[in-house]
Amino acid sequence: MPGKIETVRVALAERSYDIEIGSGTLAALPEFLRARTDSDHAVVITDGNVEGLYADAASDLLVGDGWEVDLFAVDPGETSKSVEVVEELWNVMLDEGADRKSIVVAIGGGVVGDLAGFAAASFARGLEFFQVPTTLLAQVDSSVGGKVGINLPGAKNMVGAFWQPRGVLCDVDAMQSLPDREYRAGLAEVVKYGVILDADFFAYLEANIEAINVRDAAILTHIVQRSCRLKADVVEQDERELTGLRASLNYGHTFGHAFEAIGEYEELLHGEAVAAGMRCAMQLAVRLGRVDEATYARQESLLSALNLLVDPLEADGQDLLRLMYRDKKTAAGKLRFILPSRIGHVELVSDVPEIDILASLEV
Ligand SMILES: NC(=O)c1ccc[n+]([C@@H]2O[C@H](COP(=O)([O-])OP(=O)(O)OC[C@H]3O[C@@H](n4cnc5c(N)ncnc54)[C@H](O)[C@@H]3O)[C@@H](O)[C@H]2O)c1
Ligand SMILES: O=C(O)C(=O)C[C@@H](O)[C@H](O)[C@H](O)COP(=O)(O)O
Ligand SMILES: [Zn+2]
């Protein structure tokens, strides 16, 4: 039986939607969709790991509810966020007769969500899209806010769109089957919210390490709910990252995306790269005199308690810098960094000397 369901509303005028979060919610997928669309054709996109764990059963539920369902599983992992795989999806959707009345349902982690969302945004100029995130990272971050897209070999998330889902259904029970490394990678984005927006949430994480490490369902429901609320508040005010507010969600990502790209998307998971990137960004803030050593130490200590003290990838500094210049926050050819001034508060900073950026790779 589902436990308490938390609902987070993302208020974006005609693009508004609910995120429903709880234990056992997946069983209610047909009702969740029915309440939000008139469609009866679902293109379910998943990956080879999630297919047998959750997507097959979810598709059976939909078929039982009278839906026509076409299910496609891509290879698991970041390398599926590519032009080749999205082209494959477009062709499969065409062959299966998807049209503007069809919906796309992403069941999986952030890779599936970003990829399926981009297929939904672009096929026939846009299909209704739903997210059923099954990783912690996807439940707290990637399924919310409408950034969808794919990578280019030299630049992360470089081709994409803003395409909001019509609804997001999070079942925290899915965390139980997640490999340890993937679970911890998701926690990196959770720590990010504490650092950038909410000192109380940061303290809550510090106080609940044990329960987090054993994946307690009630704690997870709260963590997912609070993370989604914090992200939704930002997205509601700056949906398309125009004012600089949404850029705060990119804390640690200028370094992190460079680590991912230099490792050809195979060395570090996104969340691991973000953890390493947050360490570098905090270090940079210390070097620039924007934050004190104690704050650096506090972030290090929480990351350590969550087994997330990830080191930056060993690579030539100039190569990393070149990759950082492809960051989407770059303005007028200049890098911009999200840097903390205290726990719970960050600023968008330009004119950072390259020498300090390079020195910050030593954490
Ligand atoms: N759009 C956004 O706003 C946004 C935000 C953050 C991250 N992202 C993107 O998200 C991606 C990372 O997402 P991710 O960390 O979820 O990775 P992922 O999608 O690769 O999933 C991680 C692994 O876990 C497996 N898996 C998924 N759910 C499972 C479950 N319940 N049990 C067992 N195995 C399961 C997957 O098959 C995969 O092997 C990156 O591409 C990143 O750029 C996007
Ligand atoms: O939603 C956002 O905005 C974020 O920045 C969230 C990030 O965690 C996420 O990794 C996002 O995909 C990065 O966006 P990008 O624009 O830097 O590619
Ligand atoms: Zn991220």
Automatic annotation (TrEMBL):
Entry protein name: 3-dehydroquinate synthase
Cofactors: NAD(+); Zn(2+); Co(2+)
Reactions it catalyzes: 7-phospho-2-dehydro-3-deoxy-D-arabino-heptonate = 3-dehydroquinate + phosphate
Similarity comment: Belongs to the sugar phosphate cyclases superfamily. Dehydroquinate synthase family.
Annotated EC: 4.2.3.4
Record: residues binding Zn(2+): 189, 253, 270
Every 3-dehydroquinate synthase C-terminal domain range: 186-330
Domain 3-dehydroquinate synthase N-terminal positions: 73-184
NCBIfam families, sorted: aroB (TIGR01357)
Pfam families: DHQ_synthase (PF01761), DHQS_C (PF24621)
Major site of localization recorded for this protein: cytoplasm
HAMAP family: DHQ_synthase
GO molecular function: 3-dehydroquinate synthase activity; metal ion binding; nucleotide binding
Organism of origin: Lacipirellula parvula
